Amino acid sequence: MKTIISLFVTTALYSAMAFPQSITITGTVMDKDEQPIYGANIYPSGNPLKGVISDLDGAFTLELNSAFKNDTLIISYIGFETIRIPIATIEQALSITLKINTQSLSDIQVVARDPIAENFSVKKIEKLDIYTEPLAQADPLKAITILPASTNTDESANPSLRGSDGDRSRVVLNGVPIYEPVRFSQINGTGYFSVLNPEIIKEQYVYASNPPVSLGNSSAGLVQVSTIDKLTFNQLQISTSLASTGAFLSQGISEKTFFQLYGNNQFSKAFIDLNSPNADHLNSFGTQDVGFNIHSDVSKNLSINFFTYTVKEDFNINAQIFTYPGKAIAQTKRNFSILNARYIHSNSIISFNGSYDIRQENFRLGNIDSDNHRFTTYSSLNYQVSLGANTIETGLNHNHNHITIDDQTSEFFYAASPSSPIDSVSSNPRRNSLESFFHVTQKLSESWILSSGIRTNALYNDTNTYWTSQLGIRYYLNNEHSFLLSGGKYHNYNTPNSFNTEYFLQSSYQAALDYTWRGSAHNFYVALFYKKENDNSDIQNLGTRNFLQSSGLEIAYDRIFGNWIKFYTSFSFLDQKEKISGEIYQGTKDLDYFVKSSISYNNPNVVGISFSFITRPGTHYTEITSANYDPNTDFYKPEFSSVINNLSYSEYNILNFSLNKIIPFRDNSIIAFLSVNNLLNTHNEQILNYNRDYTSYEAEPFQLRSVYFGLVLNLNY
Prior knowledge:
The chain is 4% helix and 57% strand.
């Protein structure tokens, strides 16, 4: 099925960023008795991961690029009041004296988060990155595509990291796993946009591999997303575009409580008409969704957050399955809600996370009629304590999944017309799991940090008892250079679908070595990784996959030039092998190179312009060598090569472009935006569509050039 292109980019590029050269901040941190404080956190409020900690003498040196010149410097330590200093006012070395405050809320929040993130291979994606990166199409999960660890080759929102299938990675929203976090999904679960609205997001972390066991089970990577917990100002945002209208309201109720309410209606006719003939495969699409988020700091120690989201969507496109062309029609209704409560006492945190997720979906093409109902509940109780520079986390979580699969499928995979013979597939898989975890982060010295963790379901009467374990050690050569060695064994369960109708346990062995250089105006990153994923899934028509083995190299570099220009480029190499029905073959994503680059100019007084480019070899597929006529179905049965993945599609190249103009008036603004996907109209091969007897074929491309534009009105009050 062809990619449904950037239909819903209600882009709001708020403030462009200015970048002078660099900022160096030095100082010492002491208590009231003028004794140095070791391990105090010093960081810019806009990005805690850019921070440092004070040494044994209480001294620190913080190097920042000057994008942070209008930010606020935070100095915090458990049990002491937090100090906030505008960076623009700092002209000399600081001498900081912290006052005792055993109930300091923000101190504990920082210590609770940063040591964990700093000891993993993690990339933070800012909200502005989601809007300014053309590949992101204003979607939080598609924003991952630009990272060197992303090996997404299908132009979807499914997070594929370091060669893994999308279903192996997990998206965790406010501490809760969101299974299949995508919209406009195919029968195999691949979806083109996520269910996440960037306006509710506070921060998004991407763990390419070896994700923290404290966040849940994933046998590949993990995406951690949290919603905002503080409202800077009230705002009404109204958007209109070629294919959507929407509104987003952020409203404070009191100093401690606020809510966000949004809704969108998306439609297809104008988009299809403007982009014809490149959009001729689209017959219609539509979405109506509404979301609500409320946060309250009930007391100095207790905070509560509730988020709920409902979406109804449908699409009708022209597609082909083997030699049968027809209309693929899908409808989905979904609602999920998440409740979070967090209580902070002294140097410890107790948190509760609970959710439910209900979904009904139907997909029809030819003689295929898939009708699935999914119901999931999740609850967790976690405890975290900070002991100086060390952190201990432990907790329990319960997960219940229930899926009803009632499908009509082709009896013969090559005969998919409405009149062809059918099979009925009915399944009612359920899964209950009770897990516990324990994770420790230890500061061994000024330069060495060690983390270790385990997660298991051994406390529960499960037929598959597993132990997830991990170990990571980071070495800081200085404030700019660091190394991370990490590895472990990981587990998760698959998400059943029409091809694999039952739950089965998946596992993986992972190891990675990362090097990071953070300069004042540039960042450089290199990683080597190895991953072996044990599997039990059926590869349609080809056999059962026993394992998938991936190893590779990642290099990334970004630099800021002058005040307005930002450049980014990355290179990845992926060597992939898979064992199918006992034989080892080249993997689908065995890629000699995967190059991604972007350049952006963001001047709020003029205009914002961004270009992004991706090039890679085509993915591998299995050749159809011959076909025999089957009189029982009046279709030809294809015969596949005995060597799986013996051919590859042509080279993939895509150039995307976006343009925006901010028009301020009083305290408000209008943002006009234009995006062009696949600017050069490259015919990138996605799949081969064959004629009746398989003697010839035509390559079906990914999305051809498409144009999208709109306006966003921001009213601040």
